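[Automated response] Your request has been received and processed.

Submitted sequence:
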Amino acid sequence: MIKCVILDDELLAISYLKLLCEQIENVEVVKAFNDPKIFLNEIKNIDCDLCILDIEMPGMTGLQVAELISDSKKIIFTTAYKEYAAEAFDLNVVDYVRKPIKKERLIQAFEKAADLLNNSQKKEFIEWNTNMGKSTIFTEQIAYIKTSEIDSRDKDIILKDGTTIVLKNLNFKSLLEMLPSKDFAQVNKKEIIALSSVKVLSTNEIITTISNESDQFLKLQIGDTYKNSLMEMFGK
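Generated structure:
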């Protein structure tokens, strides 16, 4: 669920935006403001993920407001004018939506926001009990993960330097929730691959950059359940 706050000096524009947001799944408008100064006084105490800011407002523009909150909130700009676009994206906002706002265009903006929020909530490391005790493992160092052959409740993490670390008593579902979704994919019931370790992808098989015991590149069989999601990740 994306919790959002609206700031627009026009009450009709606020009502229209609220109406659109109510029609979009997993979006909740928690509060709306028509005064930038009141908004700035209260926003730090509001539990929200994203702010929808109108750019043209008397006294203080949405651009000026964004400069003050962009470190803590995701931002979607709305405006009737296109000349602000470059300046808006300089602030690293989620999206810039032209008025009159259409539902389909607003959905696209929220989808971008959801992707950014999901990725920002994923840590660049995972912390879990391992064969070495409580450990912190940086995800960029992970090449491949498989179910342990000794105990299926455990998972073997193979790092890019060849080191193996055993995660104790952790299922794939929970493990995938810890990993950045854009960087890892489940291949079958027993294996997860870092996308950076994929050398060749075919319909049924992945050839990795990982050397096995025979000094050959490790090959993974793609399970039927995981084919579509894998192909989508690679734009197939």
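Summary generated for your ticket: Residues 103-121 form the longest helix (19 residues). The two ends are 29 Å apart (CA to CA).
If you did not submit this request, please reply to this message.
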